[in-house]
């Protein structure tokens, strides 16, 4: 097994079964590895540090620093796999360095901005109640957009105050849901969704389009972009913005970082800690107000 055609399918299986990566992540990894395949005629075993430096130099002229860092990270993952599987004895990426990039802090909406977005939803239209329920769920539960579109009726445990979420790597978690959020989901579910003709195979999905099938991730992006334009919000808003806002507002109001980590489904708390950098004024006040030297 020495050619790209032989190794890449095996690597794909490894990412899915061993690393438990989501399909979108796997596609991204393979897309970046294929940039190397297109760049050079070398086989996976022929590449060395010098040939990879050439590739990195080529990449630096075409892609942003963030994209370069991602591509190099993917290279390291691939050659680590070859070494792990004993396909290669050495790892030519060990000394490979990417550009130094800072942590990009996500945009966060204020509570007033979220209320403004919801206010501009046209509830006279059938999709209005659905769209309000979508935003309330994104913000109220901190879901990823892929998690939201796959929520099923059988995942709703309203009496217990939880929903079941299938996250990255097919890992299940229970996320608390407030009575406030339950109210808007129930309005959509009981008064709009109940009157739809639902296509076979989609009966259990919560959020449906007009044709009675699941909403796509792109459709959720489109809904939010259109609402942000109507509401006159200039920030770069996506479904993920509500997840960031959920975590930031929880932290600001005193929630424990570990609890936020569990609710978001972050494997590593380092990922969650990005939210401690977003509201520096709040953190400064918390330190000044609670440190014993500042009591007086």
Describe this protein's structure:
This protein is mainly α and 296 residues long. A hairpin with a 4-residue loop joins β1 (156-157) and β2 (162-166). It has 13 helices and 3 strands. The protein starts with a helix and ends in a 6-residue tail after the last helix. It has 2 domains: 4-84, Orthogonal Bundle (DNA polymerase, domain 1); 111-286, Orthogonal Bundle (hpI Integrase, Chain A). The mean pLDDT is 86.
Second rung of CATH, namely the architecture of the largest domain: Orthogonal Bundle
Work out the oligomeric state of the chains in this entry: single chain
Low-pLDDT runs: none
Q: In CATH, what is the class of the largest domain?
A: Mainly Alpha
- Helix and strand element order: HHHHHHHEEEHHHHHH
Whole-angstrom Rg: 23 Å
| Strand-residue proportion | under 5%
Helix content range: 40-55%
- Major sheet: order of its strands? 1-2-3
